[in-house]
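Thread amino acids onto this structure.
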């Protein structure tokens, strides 16, 4: 079996997006420099960053898929969140640069040339980018991978910005007003910065161990509450690294229950939780209690010794 066939869908997606970005960089950069169009040049710079980011994403996904080891007990899944924050930051920087170039053109009053070749190139770019976005969204839906979702979002913004560039070039061609190119460049720059916010936010939330979505947490709590042999539960905690969901909880069982019975109940609960999202890996850690000891859990979290709590 070839290496390509062994490759995971998310790895293959990053290679496809890198290849497409490389093609678009060459196409847009040559025409952007030759024509003097800020909008085309802005789009070329954005595609160049796409190429670099997609290459980094391949590395991030490769590392995140490595199994836990003696040094990284929980694996390296959070590297996807780091990649998302870096990607969002790079996107923001490209937006700022595009805004700078637009203001520069407005102040200098430079003229846009080679309009017809630029229009053809941007039309081709839109078609290619549209096909790539459809592919990335498909992979993102199948894998629920944060890096691929960020890549899909990024190329979706590219699709809209390319459409805006094409419209700008068309208006300049029809009216001869070169300021339109710079004005559209400004709009694209601000839109790119806005689109980066969601990517950065999601990456940071994963790095800060934000809980799973409220609906998911509620469903996990319902599974615990509805089990006939679980008296109560507490200390339910969740987080994700983008690929693996981590869940831990304390469940109160009959004090005289055999460990074998308790383990059977835990297996049942874990199986139901796993079925909530089969696209994710799960690490589920149950804790068996003969009574509700949440007060002691809170005390330990606050640095108190258990003996001091028991004597209160």
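Threaded sequence (312 positions):
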């Amino acid at each position: 079996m070839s290496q390509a066939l062994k490759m995971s869908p998310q790895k293959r997606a990053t290679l496809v997006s890198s290849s497409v970005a490389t093609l678009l960089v060459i196409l847009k950069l040559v025409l952007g420099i030759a024509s003097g169009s800020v909008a085309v040049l802005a789009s070329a710079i954005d595609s160049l960053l796409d190429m670099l980011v997609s290459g980094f994403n391949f590395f991030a996904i490769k590392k995140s898929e490595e199994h836990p080891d003696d040094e990284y007990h929980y694996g390296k899944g959070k590297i996807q969140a780091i990649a998302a924050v870096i990607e969002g930051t790079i996107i923001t920087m490209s937006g700022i640069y595009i805004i700078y170039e637009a203001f520069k053109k407005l102040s200098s009053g430079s003229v846009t040339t080679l309009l017809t070749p630029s229009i053809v190139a941007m039309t081709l770019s839109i078609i290619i980018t549209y096909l790539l976005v459809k592919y990335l969204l498909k992979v993102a839906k199948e894998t629920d991978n944060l890096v691929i979702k960020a890549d899909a979002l990024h190329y979706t913004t590219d699709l809209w910005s390319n459409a805006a560039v094409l419209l700008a070039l068309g208006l300049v061609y029809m009216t001869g007003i070169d300021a339109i190119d710079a004005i559209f460049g400004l709009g694209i720059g601000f839109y790119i910065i806005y689109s980066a916010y969601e990517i950065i936010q999601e990456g940071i939330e994963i790095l800060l161990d934000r809980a799973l979505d409220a609906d998911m947490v509620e469903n996990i709590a319902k599974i615990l509450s509805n089990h006939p042999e679980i008296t109560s539960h507490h200390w339910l905690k969740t987080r994700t690294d983008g690929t693996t969901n981590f869940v831990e909880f304390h469940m109160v069982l009959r004090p005289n229950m055999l460990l074998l019975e308790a383990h059977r109940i835990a297996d049942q609960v874990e199986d139901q939780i796993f079925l909530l999202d089969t696209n994710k890996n799960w690490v589920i850690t149950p804790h068996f209690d003969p009574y509700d000891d949440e007060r002691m859990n809170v005390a330990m979290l606050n640095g108190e010794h258990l003996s001091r709590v028991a004597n209160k």
